[in-house]
Amino acid sequence: MPVSRVQFHDLKDRCVLITGGGSGIGAALVEGFLRQGARVAFVDIDERASRALTERLSGETGIAPQFIHADLRDIEALQAAALKAADVLGAIHVLVNNAARDDRQELDAVSAASWDESQAVNLRHVFFMSQAVAPHMRLSGGGSIVNFSSIAYLLNMGEIPAYATAKAGIVGLTKSLAGKLGPENIRVNAILPGMIVTERQKRLWLDDAAIARMQERQCLKRSLTADDLVGPCLFLASDCSSGMTAQIMIIDGGAL
Predict the structure, then answer these.
(1) pLDDT for residue 4
(2) How far is CA 179 from CA 67, 161, 173, in A?
(3) Residue 1: its pLDDT value, please?
(4) Are the C-beta atoms of 142 and 185 separated by less than 8 Å?
(5) Dihedral (C-alpha) 108, 113, 117, 119: value to the nearest 10 degrees?
(6) Which are the catalytic amino acids?
(7) Which DSSP state fits 35?
(8) N or C end of the chain: smaller count of CB under 10 Å?
(9) What is the predicted pLDDT for the residue at 3?
């Protein structure tokens, strides 16, 4: 059943903030929540892709998500984006920390600067956006934070040491935030995607041979796409998972 036909009725009118929502997995999440009737704002650095997404969804659904331009590596800009989202939405019930960039780099080529850049792009903003949004969730009586990690850190992939470290760190951060925020009825969980075939992945890293190798490893013999992550994210955001926190959900077609 297509995700667009699966209804989580409690998500209607919920206020949702998504990072990295302009393209790829993030764009699928923006659309998925919008089609549930949620009020959606998203943060992205790519203004062109984000405005194109907003125009498309507005034309198809009659409802436009709110695009907030910001560089999540800039903590002050991130905090300002969270405030703007709360101002536009009126509250924030759901935060999806999706933004990431899986750059490849050989071990000997990693520098202090490239390492710090990877942590800023993939890990640091997850904490600071959660920190910025938590007060708004308290005012709403609770909420759900969904962090996107990856199975990459479990696969011994030698070309992504900084990225793998960041994605492992997100799991630890998820556990810590869940422990801190649980008494305030704020749940924190993580999704670990497997190999998701997006246009960016095909352009930069994936060829037919790489896709075939992963499909051979998977129990499900098909490529996973961004749409495969929408349903799990909607579930974690909804009251269907009201007793679930500090957990990870692996969506990899059975590769592990």
Answers:
(1) 54
(2) 31, 28, 10
(3) 43
(4) yes
(5) 70
(6) 163
(7) T
(8) N
(9) 54
Q: Residue 104 CB: number of other CB atoms within 10 A?
A: 12
Which of 72, 60, 61 minimizes the C-alpha distance to 22? 72
**Which residue shows structure tokens 């009251």?**
239
Low-confidence ranges of the chain (pLDDT < 70): 1-4, 205
pLDDT score recorded for residue 214: 84
Residues 6+ apart with CB under 8 A from 164: 152, 153, 157
Query: What is the Cα Rg of the chain in Å?
Result: 17
Structural domains of the chain sorted by starting position, each given as residue range(s) with its CATH number in brackets: 9-251 (3.40.50.720)
Q: Which pLDDT score is estimated for 198? A: 76
Q: Would the pTM count as exceeding 0.90?
A: yes
Query: pLDDT of 91-128, one tens digit each?
Result: 999 999 999 998 988 899 999 999 999 999 999 999 99
With beta carbons less than 8 A apart as the criterion, state whether 250 and 192 touch: yes
pLDDT attached to residue 210: 83
Task: Give 68's strand partners.
Answer: 43
Rounded Cα–Cα distance for residues 240 and 144 (Å)? 12
Token reading at 247: 């957990």
- Residue 209 has a pLDDT of 87
Tell me whether residue 47 is exposed, middle or buried, using C-beta atoms within 10 angstroms of its C-beta: 0 to 12, 13 to 18, 19 or more. Answer: exposed
- Which phi and psi angles does 64 have, rounded to 5°? -105, 130
Q: In which residue are the tokens 């998504």 written?
A: 18
Residues ≥6 apart with Cβ < 8 Å to 212: none
At 5, list the tokens: 């036909």
Q: How far is the C-alpha of 204 from the C-alpha of 182, rounded, in Å?
A: 39
